[in-house]
Amino acid sequence: MTSWLRGNGSVPLCVLLCCSAVAVCAGAGDSACWSPSVASCVECLSRGPQCAWCFKEDFLDGAGPSQRCDLPVNLLSRGCKADFLEQSEVKVEVNAAISSTQVSPQDVSVTLRPGSNASIVVAVKQLERYPVDLYYLVDVSASMQENLNHLKTVGVALSLRMTEHSSDLRLGFGSFVDKPVSPYINVHPSKISNPCSDYEIRCRPAHGFHHVLTMTGNISEFTRVIKRQRISGNMDTPEGGLDAMLQAAVCQRAVGWRMEAKRLLLLMTDQPSHLALDSRLAGIVVPHDGRCHLENNVYAASTEMDHPSVGQLSDKLLENHIYSIFAVEKQQYQWYEELVRLLPGSYLGKLGLFQASNLIELVVDAYKRLLSEVEVSVSVEDKAVSRYWVSVSPVCPEGSAAKGQRCSGVKPNQTVYFNITIGLRSCPDSGEDEDVNVFVRPVGYNESTVIRIHSKCSCSCGPRKSCNDDSQSACSGVRESPNQEQRPDRGLIKDSNRDSPSHCRANGSDVDCSGRGACECGGCACERSRLGAVYGKYCEIDNFSCPYEGGVLCGGRGVCRLGECVCEDSWTGDSCSCPISKDTCQSANGLLCSGRGRCVCGRCVCDEPGHSGDLCERCPACQSTCHSYWNCVDCHLSHGLAQKEAGLCNNTCSSLVGYTDDVSGQTGDMQTQCMYISKDSCRYQFQTITRAGQTQIHINTRPECASRTRLVGTFLSVCALTVLSGLVVVAISRLLLQKRGASPGGAVEGGGYHCTGKDMSYIPTTNEKTVTYRRDRPPDRPVEMHVQVPKLPLGDPWLY
Predict the structure, then answer these.
(1) Distance of alpha carbon 147 from its chain centroid, rounded?
(2) Is the pLDDT of residue 638 over 70?
């Protein structure tokens, strides 16, 4: 909601939205507000918007309640602080979010006290060229035969004339006669289908209203439709023109009225029209409901409802933004002259003959005059019309003149301002607050202003603890003993409504005080719980039924409402444990979670497999990814670091390869440290960096290699030590065998070895070996073979 300011070159720039109240000087005396009969806040404020009520409990102890009512300046001088003053408030707020082209503002909220008023300025801008919808509503009774013939040549000529004033003209057509019941028509069977049978002429049946042609820009189609029209007939003089006008106005979809167009309804007749209550002659007593009743483009309720009243027709023309033009013969001019005065935005034309040229001039002149006169209509809802008064004052642009509540002679692109003052006379009989809508409708415009008025008829008078407590006494000005019978509250809220469930239930709830309290004196008295406190207007808040974080309700970062934590601005989660800020997930390279995860509740959740750590920076298993680059690195190393001929390795590498002395200082969006071991056991460190989808490899040109000479020496030393150890083992083994072959006396017989019988028993004659054969895909059990190899008898010579 914002204040609305507006100005143009012809009107000095000023604040066009203002609040007004009756100004009373402090020196005017106490008589303006004070009266011995004033005993409550409501009675005080009803004396005028300048009055105030002091509800401070110890104000002027010993004085009567009437002393609490006075001018605010007097109450303040007697010791009543401003926080304890109940006084009239007039507020005006404009909803500036609703855009408008012709009428602004379009939505206004006003708060009024009885006796106060507020002023709102509504601006109406006249555009230069409007689209135009013109609907011909023609009386086709028998006396209009000649006039209907003249109408057949109007379409093309009128379209050409209107191009001077509008770039888009559409025409529609409808006809009417009268209600097709007795005594308005002859109900003889021969007359119903052909009212002109006595004259040997074929006429169409009488009808209340027939919609013939929806709005069209095809002038040829309009002319063809007019040429096919035939007259009808009825018995009495007046016609059903007003009945047909209302249907043409409210049946917007059938007629084809456009929202952006200026709407002209042209009524052509040579007789006056029936008015409300005329239908009683035919036994029709049901008032018109103001709705559309077309069936197959024919007014179906013509014989069921009365003619509309002039006031009802006026409202429907305003609601549907329609200008009405009456083209009548001079004999009926006086009758329609009185009617036009009651229909805002109407124009009356007098025609001697309904000739085409006369009709064209009538339509063009009516259009120009209607657009040059800017007028507003202000209406209050019926339920409160007697409690409000409205005043309209136009501020016309330069070159135009004010006439009543409208400006005449307004030119295109000029703006007319209307100062709308609305006052509240009194509150409803119930004494309750009331919301009322006031509609400001510029005549003939498809935009309007809605003023939503809230009449404040109650006094708050501070918090209430019970129906008989001192705070209510302060509101009424009377202290009551607990044993005294309760008197009706003469403050703003009546006793009969204090226990109303609507005061104790939140929106959408069907339980008083959220089921955790009792409705007393129009407010909730919350129950006490051993678990904690229950509070709030509807006992909807507590401090114990929400999740805890670290032993603290809602983590100490929110309040508990209806079992859910309402967190502070920078926290979220069931227990307000999750910070909204993502700073804790920010990596050193400026990415969230190193670009490999999501920040959830202030912590990184890694999305890429294998990555971990507080910022998804670790990946123990990612070393395997280095193997995919080994062929590329090997290719470059095999061609020599000095060449750096990447072209020779294109079939191996899809990455951009570079060389550096140190890979630890490289930076990138996604980095992986790798190592390559060459065939000569040298270790080359390299790093992969992925940036914007492009991978780069940086190879360290300083490998970690052992000296080849040192390796050869080491190898020879190991070999010599192995041979020497073998010789020592062979010598020792031979020595032991020689000792075993010597005799007990130490002599050796013939240098041979003879086994005893006992020794022979321990020498096996064969060697046994179990061999297991397995296939590549073994069956249920393997195949085993036992092979016995006879040993060479002891003493037998070797055969070569």
Answers:
(1) 55
(2) yes
